[in-house]
Design a protein that fits this description.
The protein is of the alpha+beta class. The chain contains 3 helices and 4 strands; from the N terminus they run E-H-E-E-H-E-H. It has helices at about 15-30, 50-55, 70-85; strands at about 1-5, 35, 45, 60-65. Helix 1 (about 15-30) runs antiparallel to helix 3.
């Protein structure tokens, strides 16, 4: 299982548009991806509702996990996405 940690770079955290962009990218890969905050339970990274319930704010470190063909490449891309300010104008 591949795993990456990243600090969320969006000034509004994973709310509204940044969460939608992230969940869309996670779901488009075709392999299961989870996201967790600290020692909390991981949730489906492709579920907008599940990701929003985490309450991830700017500067929060999250952990992504994926298993399957291309998991490392997928997680690298998702890390890049989360580290950027997805809500920047």
């Amino acid at each position: 299982m591949a795993e990456r940690s990243v600090v969320v770079g969006s000034k509004v955290g994973l709310h509204a548009r940044p969460a939608a962009e992230f969940t869309h990218a996670a779901g488009a890969a075709g392999i299961p991806v989870t996201i967790a905050v600290g020692a909390g339970d991981p949730v489906d990274a492709a579920s907008m509702l599940a990701v929003m319930t985490l309450g991830v704010e700017y500067g929060t470190e999250v952990t992504l996990r994926a298993e399957g063909d291309g998991a490392d490449r997928l997680l690298d891309g998702l890390v890049d996405l989360l580290a950027s300010d997805l809500d920047a104008a």
